[in-house]
Amino acid sequence: MSRLQAEHLYKVFGRRPDEAVTRLESGADRDELRADGTTAAVIDASFTVEPGQIFVVMGLSGSGKSTLLRMLNGLLEPTAGRVLFDGEDVTSLSPRDLRAVRSSRISMVFQHFALFPHRSVLENAGYGLEVQGVPREERTRRAAEALELVGLAGWEDSWPDELSGGMQQRVGLARALATDADLLLMDESFSALDPLIRRDMQDQLLELQKRLKKTIVFITHDLNEAMRLGDAIAVMRDGRIVQLGTAEDILVTPANDYVASFTQDVDRSRVLTAGAIMADKETAYGTTTDGGDEIRGADDVLAAAPATVSEDTPIIELFTPCAGSTTPVAVTDDEGELVGVVPRTRLLAVLGEPMPAPAAPAAEIPAQTGTGAATRTAADGGKAVASA
Predict the structure, then answer these.
(1) What is the DSSP-derived secondary structure letter of residue 294?
(2) What residues does the ABC transporter domain cover (predicted)?
(3) Which residue, among 220, 263, 257, has the nearest Cα to 352 in the 3D structure?
């Protein structure tokens, strides 16, 4: 079962919000509503987040991403639609039950740290446990363990103003981890940090995720950050999710010109992987090696390949072997079985312009969005290209 599911979420501010939703469902756009004094912050947002996944929502300021996040834990009530958390409808909970969910099962890490200046680092890290009513001894132990996880062991008795910005953000992360919540919501959590510290915090989050396997919804306006962190990415514009997929989906097949403009400056060689660009292994059969021998099957490919890599190898690591050989690089699975090849021509081709989005997709087939897939069309043979 999905950990989190959003179903046709709308959030409208202003007069007659229910009427505004009806107009939006009938095809009205955001500007029409704004002219009438109504703001549609989120429009028909649907997605799923699987357990242990980092789901990134990205977009420019005003795109609706932070409003969307606040509907996920009930800080904002949707105008329409619902949020399911472990199968339970969060939007139908009583205020008391909703507070209980927020205090123990969903934690939030804010952009501006939100630390109490009059509390020590340890007390800040244990604040969520204090709200839950956890006894002091256990609270102290769990807060100290969380601080150690984020690299702040030894700083327990310090005050927030004695810490750097990155360290303060680590305290905020420790506070969220101490509660052992099932879901972490992170709202632009690293955007206030200097670039080098921000990169360090990204590394820290990825390392923690390997160990803890939390379910995380991460909000950002930085595409490079989204590409680096996200197992799945939702791109928002004017309140709508305009594309949902993996980093590779979005880079290789942007849904429209807006998404393509976001991705044009991304270093594709560090985001795309061998598995994303590989050709069928059979394409190498019948070709010849650098020594002139014919490749007849998988064993010949593996023997002649200038390098053998896994599917998640960044393509930047393929340049050297491809430059020195006309034989394709071999791509294998976890058992060492050949699953594909990367010829030199294919490597060079994917570094060019992104593939254009289909002008008019035919027979759209809804896909499971939580696993990084997006809307698939019969016209493109099932390649993920756009969101619902």
Answers:
(1) B
(2) 4-263
(3) 263
Residues 345, 309 contacting (CB under 8 angstroms): no
- Kindly indicate whether the domain formed by 271-350 is annotated with CATH number 3.10.310.40: no
Q: Are strands 329-332 and 308-310 parallel, antiparallel or unpaired?
A: parallel
Return the pLDDT at 251.
85
Tokens of 82: 């619902």
Is 56 in a helix, a strand, or coil?
strand
pLDDT on residue 384: 35
Place of tokens 């680092």: 121
Helices assigned H by DSSP within 220-343 = 223-229, 247-252, 257-263, 268-271, 274-277, 298-304, 319-323
Q: Which two tokens stand for residue 224?
A: 């490079």
Using the predicted structure, report yes or no on whether residue 186 has a pLDDT greater than 60. Answer: yes
Q: Which of 44, 46, 21, 45 is nearest to 33 (CA)?
A: 21
| pLDDT single digits (tens) 83-130 | 999 999 999 999 999 988 988 899 988 877 789 999 999 999 999 999
